[in-house]
Amino acid sequence: MDREELKKEIIALLCRNARMSDKEIADRLGSAARTVAGLIRELERDGVIMGYSAIVNDPSANGEVRAIIEVEVRPERDTGFDNVAERLGKFPEVQSVYLVSGRYDIRLEVAGRSLQEIASFVAGKLAPQDGVKSTATYFLLKKYKEAGVQFSKDEKYERLKIVP
């Protein structure tokens, strides 16, 4: 397996389990742990691997309410959507920013402590931004699958409590 193929396989394994050791990855790929460790450092240095995270099934664990916000944007001359997307991504409430096709141009994933906090973010920070034409906000009520991990079908579902 050449270096580029090995890198792709390492990335695939780390996407499934970011805690997998260099040795375990090496064993699965029939490579040396030292080679795998070097390639991982290279992927991190080159910005291909930007970080590692945990997939959490308990929304109350960090006290967050999450929402998806679709944003219709007026593209800027020469830079298109890039400057607007970068500007929106700088808000601490924004967890992810994607350029998408369809009715809306940019998809944001945001987190806050309450529905009201997210609504205030949309009204006070997001909507007034230059280039933002319209938004549509969807609050996440329940997770069934995230990052390739299927959550238990036996889990007890409790609706999100809305308190005035």
- Order of strands, main sheet, comes to 2-3-1-4
Low-confidence stretches: none
Relative helix content: 25-40%
Give the overall pLDDT as a whole number: 88
Order of helices and strands: HHHEHEEHEEE
Q: Can you walk me through this structure?
A:
- The chain is of the alpha+beta class.
- It folds into 2 domains: 3-45, Arc Repressor Mutant, subunit A (Orthogonal Bundle); 59-141, Alpha-Beta Plaits.
- Helices cover 34% and strands 21% of the residues.
- The strands form 2 sheets. Strands 2-3-1-4 form a 4-stranded antiparallel sheet. A two-stranded antiparallel ribbon has the order 5-6.
- The longest helix is centred in the first third of the chain and has 14 residues, at 3-16.
- 12% of the residues are buried.
Short structural description:
By secondary structure, the chain is α+β, with helices and mostly antiparallel strands.
